[in-house]
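User: For a reading group we're discussing how well predicted structures match intuition. Take TetR/AcrR family transcriptional regulator. Before you show the prediction, I'll give you the sequence so everyone sees exactly what went in.
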Amino acid sequence: MDSRQLLVETMSELMWERGYADTSPRDVRERSGVGQGSMYHHFPTKRDLALAALERNVADLLPAASELDGPGSPMACIEAYLMRPRDALKGCKVGRMTQDPQVREDPVLLAPVARAFAQVHVSWVTVLREAVAAGELRADLDPERLAHTLMAVLQGGYVLAIAQQDPGPFDDARAGALDLLRAAAPPAPHRTNNRRNGKP
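Assistant: Thanks. Here is the predicted 3D structure of TetR/AcrR family transcriptional regulator, as structure tokens, for the group to look at:
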């Protein structure tokens, strides 16, 4: 790993742990072992480095969201995504940045965060529409609203877990969301056996 990559990775980790406001260039240099001259050669300002780190965090988030388009039925993909292992006490790498006032008030730093959530929202809407088309969810449900609800459940679950220093509330929130989705299934005789995209 070259010095630029090491700086970005280190800043990414520190921002996840402490936030942008509480991470200093010195913190990054000390943890990464990269010298001051090299750091400012690659990133003239802390903001430049933070932007690269945010882009990296977004790149980490989006492949996970692509699991919503994985093999199996739409509901199987939804369940796998909701219940996949996460470190609830560390929170979401991207969502955490919305709680940092310096990120929130800087349109340039906030842009990749907003873009990431917009892309995840599209993935959620797509899989929920497919679940409705396959008869796994009722046709009267609004995929757009439901996508926002499910994203809010995950982000809110992180907040509750961190506040209580206990992953239990996060696990309960996502299991509860899954319970509600199952309750929103139409009566069994109306379901179809449609598969999406020819996937088994």
